[in-house]
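dude i think i finally got it to work??
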Amino acid sequence: MGKPLVYEILEKPATSCVIGICSAIWFYIQKKNIGYAHVGLSYETAIQGHYWRIITSAFSHISVIHLVFNMSALWSLGVVETLDHMGLGFQFYLQYTLVLVLFSGFLVLGSYHILINRFKLEYFRRVTAVGYSCVVFGWMTILSVKHPSSKFNLFGFLSLPISFAPFESLIFTSIIVPQASFLGHLSGIVVGYSIAWGLIHGMNNYWAVSILGWTALVFVLSLKKSGTFELDFLEIESVTDPSVRFLAAGNGRTLRMSALTPGGSEMV
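look at this
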């Protein structure tokens, strides 16, 4: 018999929290009838200053199947939190989850930029991606390098050698789920190898907290500037006075969805 669920949750606290957050966001999205265009990441919205979408797109899922697939895979990969003796563990997991979320988002946007401006593929200008798959593929790749003898379990019955899992899963999802973002998944794999091979290294609690703080600041300021949400407690002064001042909260936040030109959507 396996371990009781409560013990596994205690062994994987960060993984459990991420699954809880993504599930809660999915529930909120369903309740409020929010779509890809409202939370997803696209090249067009990024160049308009909607930088907050790098974060919201990663933790948002529109389809319940998409959510279950990603969270099931993430639960299996949570073994990273238990591998302190291999230089991984809880702190490593938290620090490099932040790196995977940000860097894979930047890499996706960079890929779109090249495809649009170099190869004139205007389709990618409005392709909107959502989902945690970039991070899932990143951890899958890191584990395949750091702990190649482990197994990758999906849905509790499908078991793959972790050393082949990243590219097997990339091909599998591209065939089975046509809407799956090949570029998004590939970006996660690239960032994962960069971390596993030491090309991206040196993260510690100081840098993680600093990056998290700057990310939160850019998130709030870009959210305010984009006008998607009315943040009554935050007022941005004119360019001549770049200070930011906080005012007393008004009647709370009012959601105002901006009209976007219809485009494609991808699940990552």
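Residues 236-262 have pLDDT under 50 and may be disordered.
im so relieved honestly
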